[in-house]
Amino acid sequence: xxxxxxxxxxxxxxxDVSSDFAFLTRSTLSxxxxxxxxDGQEYPLVKVEISSASHPFYTGKHKIVDTSGxxxxxxxxxxxx
Length: 81
Hints:
This protein is of the alpha+beta class. It has helices spanning 56-59, 70-77, and strands at residues 10-16, 21-27, 34-36, 42-48.
């Protein structure tokens, strides 16, 4: 590999702003904000809009929004007879 062409891969904390859920992982993203983590060290903080803690699919609050009746039409068409 060529030296000095790859981004720095370091520990970063991602925080879901809607559910206040945070997790520490490694990433090439950087941020000017920092946060003190459970281990007492400071890490760059990247705020995200949605994560597994707030996504409807993972929380079980997933709803099918059907304004034109497409789901019912599909179910009628392919229903077992």
